Amino acid sequence: MITKNANLLSFLNDLRGGKIHYRLSQHRDDAIMVEVAVPGERWEVEFLDDGTVEAEAFRSDGSIHDASILERIIRSHSDEPADSTS
Question: Are 48 and 31 a contacting pair, CB within 8 Å?
């Protein structure tokens, strides 16, 4: 069990040593997620109870949008139908 935790602690120490911002969260019962934000990228690194590490990187294509994209993002990811009225 200590070895599994050591991997997480070692990773956190490496991030802190590199002055890389991170946040801890838990979305699964069997894992701790480290969310990392660096310029142009966001990483989700999960340390699972069985010692497995899963990592996913999301990279920006460099496009900068104005505020008009916010409505489109919300509409495309909302659970409500597009023509729903409150």
Answer: yes
Q: Where are the domains of the chain?
A: 2-77
For the chain, 86 residues long, the average pLDDT of each consecutive 10-residue run is: 70 96 95 95 95 94 91 87 55
- Strand, coil or helix: what is 77? helix
* d(C-alpha 31, C-alpha 16), whole Å: 20
Question: What pTM value is reported for the model?
Answer: 0.73
2-77: CATH number: 2.20.25
Q: What's the half-sphere exposure (Cβ side, CA atoms, 13 Å) at 51?
A: 5
How many residues belong to the chain?
86
